[in-house]
Amino acid sequence: MNILLLGSGGREHAFAWKISQSKRCEKLFIAPGNAGTLQCGTNVNLNLLDFVAVRNFVLEKKIDMVIVGPEEPLVKGIHDFFLADEQLRNIPVIGPEKDGAQLEGSKDFSKQFMSRHRIPTARYQTFTAETLQEGFNFLEQLNPPYVLKADGLAAGKGVVIPNTLDDAKNELKEMLTDAKFGAASSKVVIEEFLKGIELSVFVLTDGDSYKILPEAKDYKRIGDQDTGPNTGGMGAVSPVPFAGKEFMQKVEERIIIPTIEGLKKENILYKGFIFIGLMNVNGEPYVIEYNVRMGDPETEAVIPRIESDLVELFEAVSKGTLAEKELVISKQSVVTVMLVSGGYPGDYEKGKVISGLGDVKESFVFHAGTSMDEKEVIKTSGGRVLAVSSFGKNMEEAAALSYRSVSKIAFENMYFRKDISLDLQTKSQVIK
Ligand code: AMP
Ligand code: GLY
Question: For the segment 109-150, what is each residue's pLDDT rounded down to a tens digit?
Fold first, then answer.
């Protein structure tokens, strides 16, 4: 099969690495890809939101399957575009259609969906500029901190958690009447703050049956001990020690099954990944958000643990035969450390030469923001630059290997968190 993978981050390099190992894959194209995906296939300079350009490429290269990495093309309807085109209709797209993508594309839709299907989540209400005063009243009923979410996609920045009632009211006003996040904040979901520990659960579904992929925990803040601003993710671990059998059974019964059944009841044919952001509140799972794609950097910790052929699983997703497939998962732990450009998540410089990549032998280095110049020199081209992932028989061993590999890599102003997995290492000892 000829496969086209859309995206350019660490998630896509991890996918490309795995897909390129499949005996079902003949040619792999990655659009637009990065310097890492070049090792797995051919990069193509396409704008993912230019569906006509994607169409022309798919027809020209006789692509047999399209895998969509990020959410934006899905929310904007790339899968629907394929289904509406006579020549593309039979080419499977991994990723939901526009209706299913609303689970991520509209926070209000996803909260209503959870409430229709009795899926545990924080209490909430949705407001618009016309109902600003009611929003203030609702905030007054809640305890701090307050959680305000722009309804639409806001490049990962649409969630604000003010600590005081005054700040929350100001924030609500800015979002609704001053369009702080543009059209994305023309509706705002206000919800109760859930206190607990977060994890990411991933499901692959063909719209009927599903497989639960390895779960992961992401480290979102820039600084050690979860300090400083939020980022796209500074590291990840899989498996997650506090997501034991009993907890995961609750997740499956209370969240995964009602989600899949809910989609079916609403006639939403969903083929792709569902990423469920969960809060473990004293051992009880609550949904914080749905995403309609895999997480980044979670994918860089999850994909190495999948032993099954991913392309065969994708084929089963497209044919609706996922129930017949077995998902084999490695028992080993993976710890992923993200190397970022100094200054990130604020302003940072690009174009720094990366050295030492060839010296890493004990880890996978998934590229996130890298590019290769005409002289084949690999340089930084984004905030998150490289994801270094290692296997270990436990998290301690995996983390030690990742940090040893990190010490071999360098670029000017490179920064990384030194504590990825440390919080869970002590917890895992307590649990065991
Ligand atoms: P984002 O990944 O930008 O959607 O950020 C959402 C983050 O906000 C989550 O990862 C949580 O850390 C936090 N968050 C969202 N909703 C809640 C909630 N109801 N209670 C506590 N934290 C929340
Ligand atoms: N790591 C969180 C995300 O991909 O949204």
Answer: 999 999 999 999 999 999 998 999 999 999 999 999 999 999
Looking at the fold, whether 200 and 297 belong to one and the same domain comes out as yes
Domain range spanning residue 156?
123-191
Are residues 306 and 205 both part of a single domain? yes
Q: Tell me which residues have their CB closer than 6 angstroms to ligand 1.
A: 122, 147, 156, 159, 191, 193-194, 198, 277, 288-289
Q: Using a 6 Å cutoff on CB, does residue 239 contact ligand 2?
A: no
What six digits make up the tokens of 199?
Answer: 């994890």
pLDDT at 271: 98
Q: What is the mean pLDDT of residues 61-88?
A: 98
| pLDDT tens digits, one per residue of 315-354 | 999 999 999 999 999 999 999 999 999 999 999 999 999 9
DSSP tag of 151: S
3-class DSSP state of 63: coil
The SS3 of residue 287 is strand
In a domain, 116, yes or no: no
Residue 67 contacts residue 3 (beta carbons within 8 Å): yes
Q: Does the Cβ of 218 fall within 6 Å of ligand 2?
A: yes
Domain boundary among 132, 158, 191: 191
Beta bridge partners of 230: 221
| Confidence class for position 426, pLDDT limits 50, 70, 90 | low
Count Cα neighbours of 376 within 13 Å in the Cβ-side half-sphere.
Answer: 2
**CB 22, CB 46: distance < 8 Å:** no
Residue 108 placed within a domain: no
Which residues are 37's β-sheet partners?
A: none
Q: Residue 386's pLDDT band (boundaries 50, 70, 90)?
A: very high
Query: In angstroms, rounded to a whole number, what is the distance separating the alpha carbons of residues 66 and 199?
Result: 28
CA–centroid distance for 159 within its chain: 16
